[in-house]
Amino acid sequence: MLACCLGAVQVIGVQVRLTDAAASAARSLARGDSAVRAAGLVHQTVAGASLAPERRGEFVCARVVTRAPGIFAGLTLEAQSCALAGGQ
Known about the structure:
InterPro entries: Rv3655c/TadE (IPR049790). It comes from Cryobacterium flavum. The protein contains 2 helices and 3 strands, in the order ααβββ. By secondary structure, the protein is of the alpha+beta class. It has one domain.
């Protein structure tokens, strides 16, 4: 039971970092940075996560995906964020 609780806390922590990474990547892409630079920001926040940039009209979106840690390794975690293209 304790292992499940601690594992759940780990998953929540990774999800929070994933959300931060998606927001940072979306802002970076919206400023005109390359996808490689945005992916670097993602990897600094969540090692092993992948970035999928996407353009939606005036917005640039970043979808970040990784595997959950520990006993929840079968789960896929993801977060998405968008920013206005050309924003400062």
